[in-house]
Automatic annotation (TrEMBL):
Lineage: Bacteria, Pseudomonadati, Pseudomonadota, Alphaproteobacteria, Rhodobacterales
Highest rank taxon of the organism: Bacteria
Pfam family membership, one: DUF1203
Record protein name field: DUF1203 domain-containing protein
């Protein structure tokens, strides 16, 4: 399986001031503490003392009632896209929501579970054993914010 960041062209567009999913310019925050600001592009924490962006992100191609939109963090400076391995420094919380989606970008009921971080890879393998799972999202267990997409690979 592959842990996938947001696309590099999306990250660059937001750094260039293009609007986010809500048609707003991403907000710039001048200083990261080095924790609690996971960049969805490099799949690491924004380094301490560095600026970062907050943008509304909808990690889906189409629109339907399941296409959630929410805030994400992004290094304000260029960073190298993360993946495909499990992003240990990026997933720094004790647990996350791991949820499977179908090819038509709908939640597959019964797949969402709050999962301890150390069990995420095993949970993804379990979900990918099901043919109807096209991809998986890892989301915040406390706020439901999108962290990264997981694909077969």
């Amino acid at each position: 399986m592959r842990f996938c960041p947001i696309p590099s062209d999306t990250a660059q567009a937001w750094r260039d001031g293009f609007p986010d999913a809500y048609e707003l310019a991403p907000e710039r925050v001048e200083t990261s503490t080095g924790s609690g600001t996971p960049c969805r592009h490099c799949l690491d924490q924004v380094p301490a003392g560095q600026p970062y962006l907050i943008a509304a992100h909808r990690p889906f191609k189409g629109l339907n009632p399941y296409t959630e939109t929410g805030p994400i963090f992004l290094c304000a400076q260029d960073c190298v896209a993360g993946g495909p391995d499990f992003p240990k420094r990026f997933l720094a919380s004790e647990q996350y929501i791991v949820r499977g989606y179908s090819a038509d970008e709908r939640i597959v009921y019964g797949t969402g579970a709050v999962t301890p971080t150390g069990e995420i890879e095993d949970r993804c393998k379990e979900l990918f054993a099901r043919d109807e799972i096209a991809f998986i999202h890892i989301r915040s267990a406390s706020n439901n914010c999108f962290h990264c997409r997981v694909e077969r690979g």
